[in-house]
Specification:
Elements: E1 10-16, E2 35-41, E3 49-51, E4 62-64, H1 71-90, H2 114-124
Antiparallel strand pairs: 1-2, 3-4
Helix pairs in contact: 1-2
């Protein structure tokens, strides 16, 4: 993204009851609520590619994000997860109301070091993905 040295490499966004289709398909019930704080990695070092699969203009291209292939990206994103968790678990506005990780029993709210977050990030982190569908060529 062409960030300057004074721009952040991470941005946090939070939303109620969202974890993405990959991670969490069950929502809370019985008056429970959840929210997510999601670190977004800006200006990753890893670089992917887009290439055509064939000469057929209706066939979707092949996209390989190479997401987190560079070790620096994994380091930055796992540290961002550690920091986000610290904000939620120790923050003045949240520490007294948070009851733990969702789904219940998953335990990631108990992680305290960047190293604790590495396997979680490797398993759950994703890029923005689009399912591309092209219409008929214009005539």
């Amino acid at each position: 993204m062409g960030l300057t040295p004074k721009q952040p490499n991470i941005e946090f966004f939070s939303t109620e009851s969202y974890g993405g289709p990959k991670q969490y398909t069950d929502q809370p019930f019985g008056g429970e609520s959840t929210f997510s704080i999601i670190p977004e990695l800006f200006s990753p070092v890893s670089k992917g590619f887009v290439t055509l699969k064939s000469k057929d203009p209706l066939e979707n291209p092949m996209v390989d994000h190479k997401y987190l292939e560079d070790p620096l990206d994994l380091l930055v994103l796992s540290e961002a997860c550690r920091f986000a968790n610290e904000i939620v678990m120790k923050g003045a506005g949240t520490k007294d109301i948070i009851q733990g990780s969702w789904p219940a029993g998953s335990g990631h709210s108990e992680y305290t070091s960047r190293e604790d977050w590495v396997s979680f990030v490797k398993k759950h982190a994703t890029t923005c993905k689009w399912n591309l569908r092209f219409g008929a060529p214009m005539t």
